[in-house]
Amino acid sequence: MYIARQPIFNTEKKVYGYELLFRGERESQRFDGSSGVHSTASVIAGLFESGIEQIVENKKAFINFDHELMKMDFIELIPPHRLVVEILEDVVVSQGLQDRIQYLSKLGYQIALDDFSEDYGSYPLIKHADIIKYDLIATPLDTLKEAVEKALKGKKVLLAEKIEREEDFQKAKTMGFTLFQGFFFSKPSIIGGENRTKTTSKTQYMRLIQELQREEPSFDHLAEVIGQDVNLAYRFIRVISGRTKKNSVDSIKKALTYIGLKELERWIHVLMIQELGSDKPRELVQLSLVRSKFSEGLARCSGLKNKRHEAALMGLFSTIDALMDMKMEEALKGVSLSETVRSALLEEKQGDLAEIVQMIKSYEKGQWSNIDRLAKTLNLKPEDISNQYLQSVEWAKRTMADMV
What we know:
The protein is an alpha/beta fold. The protein has 19 helices and eight strands. The protein has an eight-stranded mixed barrel with strand order 1-2-3-4-5-6-7-8, surrounded by six helices. Strand 4, helix 4 (95-107) and strand 5 (110-113) form a beta-alpha-beta unit. The longest helix has 21 residues, at 382-402. The radius of gyration is 23 Å and the shape is elongated. The model is unreliable at 26-36 and 189-200 (pLDDT under 50).
């Protein structure tokens, strides 16, 4: 089973929910008949039995349903406040389908129309819909003015998909869209000049990372660097205290001894990412953590076990361009990274970690054919990929909670 999630944001760039992407069988590229339907139903049922909170936390889950899946009564096993029922764009509209949708609406389920491109005034499912999703690649904003006006008058919630740029997000928001889905949040948005605070923070973190990469790192020097920044010292002590379950930590140096150097290096990286992302959507920082743990897990399960620490660092830094509002090449200047990690981050399509970079990005987008190809290259089983992803999401959630 493959399963991934894509965040859906509100106007404040805070996560409203997640669209869940999944596939039950390696050979199945879509819902294609009775066996595919029942396979997908089993995947969904198993997912929610294992705990929906692990995937969507306290947010809503958006899941696609076709005509056959809508008939299944397992939908009612999922609490209405957790599920948004997405009706696929190619569904055959029948009276039975409309009756089923109306019944689910009365139970409290929100109904969304996926990739809507029909005539707003005549499409029969409009009256049942709470949310209308527009794919901005297939239906550009400039072609939607009349439909958007009608939808807003009908008190519909509008969701813009395939948002790739900040300007698209702003334009859609101005038109009346209140939910947004796409990769705009992980792209650099250059505004104004250099941010001195970020530069200073980056310098401090780089000093720590460079010391940790020495053959024999000095705890005295590490403690000295941390102690020069009261904000960093406070956050470091707080994180270490939470991880070690100690009631008190009486010195920075002693805090350093509570964990091994590799674990310390990981936490320095995590703190750095959070610091640089302090004015970014929380989801972007969490994405960095998910990618870090996911990359490490994929390396461990493949033939790259000896590269797992580099893979973790590569995954963590994979959004550094967006966090620092600059291109990846510029963000990596002055950062002491191995050539393997650097080439993977610059997407040079070479080096041991290149396939892992491609895997995590394909997984996030639900590009199953790419995932199958990369799984064979990396000698990964589907269950290994899915399990590592679920564990990564859970780890990232715990880590974010520790750092509040």
